[in-house]
Amino acid sequence: MDSSFINIAIVVVYLLAMLAFGWWGKSRTKNNSDFLVAGRRLGPMLYTGTMAAVVLGGASTVGGVGLGYKFGVSGMWLVVAIGSGVLLLSLLFAGTIQRLKIYTVSQMLSLRYGQRATQTSGIVMLAYTLMLCATSTGAYATIFVVLFGWERWLAIAVGGAIVLVYSTIGGMWSITLADQVQFIIKTVGIFFLMLPFVLNAAGGFDGIRARVDASFFQLDGIGAQTIITYFVVYTLGLLIGQDIWQRVFTAKTPKVARWGGATAGIYCVLYGVAGAVIGLAARVALPNIDVKALGKDVVYAEVATHILPIGIGGLVMAAAVAAMMSTASGALIAAATVARADVVPFVASWFGKTINTDDTENPEHDVKANRYWVLGLGIVAVLISMAAQDVVVALTIAYDILVGGLLVAILGGLVWKRGTGIAAAWSMAVGSVLTLGLLIAYATGIIPSEDGVYANDPIYWGLGASLLVYVVVSLLTPPTEPAVREAWDRRVAGAAVEELPLEAHPVASH
C-alpha cells in the first residue's frame, strides 16, 4: 500500500477523533464554568496534559526541530524558555490564581485594584489571543497543503472548521479531552518515534559528532542575544497570557495548579531538548535539505517522510497537527472569553451603557451565548489567517505589547501590596504606548535596525518605563481602598467566596 495513503489515512482518523471529542465534551457542559474552565474540576493528569498541550504548539514542535537542524543543541532554547515560563507561573502564582475563581486576567486586575481603567488590558489580551489563534491556524494548514495537496485557503478552511466545531460544541471540556489525545500523540511522536529513528539513521551521537562542527554542541550556538529574547518574550509572556491563565482556572485545587503545572513545565523543557536533538540528527541523516530556500520548518516533514517507516510518518505528522490545533483551540476560547467578559462591557461603558453578559438564571442560554462568541471569533481568526501571508508580525506586536505594557501591572498586583490602581492604569498605558510607538519606529525605519518589527528594544524600553511609572505613581497615590484590599485578601486566602460572574469587574465605591 502506498505510504502517502497510509499517512493521510492516519491524519484523517485523528481529525475525525477530534470531532468526536467535541460531542463527548458537550455532554459535560451545563453552564459558564463548564464551558469556559471545564467546571474547575481537572485533576493532576488531565491538568498536566492540557497545560503541556496548549503551550507546545507548532513553533515548539515543527519550529524546534528546525532550529535543531540549523543551530544544533542550542535550538532547544525556544522551548526551554516556554517551559521555564510554565514552571515559574506554576510554582509562584498558579495557586493564587486558581483561588480567585475568575475567568480572565482583566478580572484579576479589577479585583486587585478596584479600578475600571484596568479593563483596557482586555483589548490587548483580545488582540494577542486572536493573533495567536490565527497564527496556529495558518501553521497546521501548511501540513495539510503538503499532505493533501490542497490550496492554502482550503487547508486553512478545513483545519479551522475542525477546531471550530469541537471548540464550539463542548468548550473547554472538549478542548481538554482533545488535548489529552494531542498530548499522548505528541509524546509518542517526538520521544518514542522521531528521536530514536533519527538518531539511529544518523549513527547515534558518535556518528553526529564525527560529521558536524563542534559548534552544533555548544549551548550558546544560537547566540546569547537570541536566547535572552526567547526568555524575555516567551517566558514573561506565558506568565500573563489569558490562554495560559484560563488553563490554570481549570485546576481542581491550588495544589493541582502548582504541581501539575510544574510537571508540565519540566515536560516542556525535555520536549525542547528532544526536538533540538532530532533536528541535529536530521542534519546528518538528511544533509541536503535547503533550509535557506524552503525554510527550517520543512525539516520536520522531511524527517517524517524520508526517515520514518510507513505509518509512523503519518503518526508523526498527526503529532504536528495536534500541537498546532491544541494551541489554536486554547487561544480561541481565551479570545472568546475576553471579548465577552471584558471588552464588550468595557466598550459599552464608554457609551453609558451596561451590558450583562452573564445569564446565570438560564445556564443553557449562557452556554449558547459562549458558543456564538467562540464561533464568531473563530471565523474571524480563519479569515485573518487566509488574508495575511504573515500573521506572525501581528502576533509579534501583540506579544510585545502584552509583555511591555501589561506584565508589570499584573505581576505587581500579585506580589506588591502597595501597588495602586491608578499606578497600574498608567503603567499599562505608558508601557503599551511606548512599546507600540517604538515598534512602529523600527518597522518604518525611523529608527534604523536590521530587525525591524522583530527588534527587542521596544520590549525593554516598554518594560522599564512601565515599571518606573508603576512604582513612582504607587508611592505618590493613596493605597488601594481597604474594602477592595480586604475582598482581594479573602480570595487569595481561599476563603469561601462565590465564583465571580463572567462579566463582573468589581470597582471601588466613589
TrEMBL record:
It is found in: Membrane. The keyword Cytoplasm does not apply. Its main location: membrane. The chain crosses the membrane at residues 6-24, 45-69, 75-100, 121-147, 153-176, 183-202, 222-241, 262-286, 306-325, 372-388, 394-416, 423-447, 459-477. Keywords: Membrane, Transmembrane, Transmembrane helix, Transport. It holds the Pfam family SSF. The keyword Membrane applies. InterPro entries: Na/Glc_symporter_sf (IPR038377), Na/solute_symporter (IPR001734), Sodium:Solute_Symporter (IPR050277). It is a multi-pass membrane protein. Belongs to the sodium:solute symporter (SSF) (TC 2.A.21) family. This is Sodium:solute symporter. It comes from Arthrobacter gyeryongensis.
